[in-house]
Amino acid sequence: MPPRKIIIDTDPGQDDAVAILLALASPEDLEVLGITAVAGNVPLPLTEKNARIVCELAGKPDTKVFAGCDAPIARKLVTAEHVHGKTGLDGPSLPDPTMPLQDQHAVDFIIDTLRTEPAGTVTLCPLGPLTNIAVALQRAPDIANRIQEIVLMGGAYFEVGNITPAAEFNIYVDPEAAKIVFACGAPITIMPLDVTHKALVTEPRNNAFRALGTPVGVAVAQMTDFFERFDKEKYGSAGAPLHDPCVTAYLIRPDLFTGRHINVEIETGSDLTLGMTVADWWGVTDRPANATFMGDIDSDGFFALLTERLARL
């Protein structure tokens, strides 16, 4: 089979960086048509810069990187420097990128690509807030039925929230965008906290990255060393969850994940539960299923894949 064509929409973030590296290390499985940056973990000038830093770390400076929306559709931007550090990629010391940022706006790139490529052949991979995807759908409703699949990291059900008691960060930052995306009719697969909190970078797993002895392996180990301090203190876990690489790992090895096709709605009206992903896991409503909501992961298989692919870079 030819590699699957993808657009990675991202707000790097250390775990975003690992997700990008996994995709760029897997050309037989994934053809990265472009990387679109959005404001999220840190503001847009840093996320577009970080995306280019990661491409150069991977030795893939020809990858096209586009800057997108710098604020949510209807709200003030909330960022996460308390998790990812002031640059978003705190941990390793990486040089500023020399590769260019593309002139085209990320939203226009998404629309043009979906209209140009054969219908049903491009998968969107949002790793951050869904602003770019939602704005593209608003401007060009015709693209919705041309999307092969939207595979995103976001939301939670059993794990509830990580930025508020009820909401996961990516959905909370732009709940209006998430509502638009979840209602668009394209096939959607979700990697919620319920899955990503089982993908823990324990000390032996991080040592395996470091033992690769390459700039990529060492940088990934330093990234996870940095942001695991926050998560280990918060959750009392044995390591930090690697959220975003679950998206690219799923595209390469879907057998590593299990879930259910259910209805998922986004709360946009309540101050108390704003950004909550209301997942009908038990099928107690008559609302139609609109997303495959993952619930479990083979974490050993996931880290074996990640380590094997990162060793290529």
Walkthrough of the structure:
The protein is an alpha/beta fold and 313 residues long. The chain has one domain: Ribonucleoside hydrolase-like (Inosine-uridine Nucleoside N-ribohydrolase, Chain A, Alpha-Beta Complex). It is built from 12 helices and 12 strands. The chain has an 8-stranded mixed beta sheet, sandwiched between helices. The longest helix is centred in the C-terminal third of the chain and has 21 residues. It starts with a strand and ends with a helix. The model has no long low-confidence stretch (mean pLDDT 96).
End-to-end separation: 23 Å
Extract low-pLDDT stretches: none
Annotation field: number of helices: 12
**Class per helix and strand makeup:** alpha/beta
Q: What is the topology, as strand order, of the major beta sheet?
A: 3-2-1-4-5-6-12-9
Mean pLDDT: 96
Determine Rg (CA atoms, Å): 18 Å
What is the global morphology? Answer: globular
- How is the biggest beta sheet arranged? 8 strands, mixed
Total number of distinct structural domains: 1
What would you give as the CATH superfamily? Ribonucleoside hydrolase-like
CATH class wording: Alpha Beta
What share of residues is helical? 25-40%
Task: Spell out the helices and strands N to C.
Answer: EHEHEHHEHEHHEHEHHEHEEEEH
Q: Total strand count, please?
A: 12
Strand content: 15-25%
Query: So, CATH architecture?
Result: Alpha-Beta Complex
Output the CATH topology: Inosine-uridine Nucleoside N-ribohydrolase, Chain A
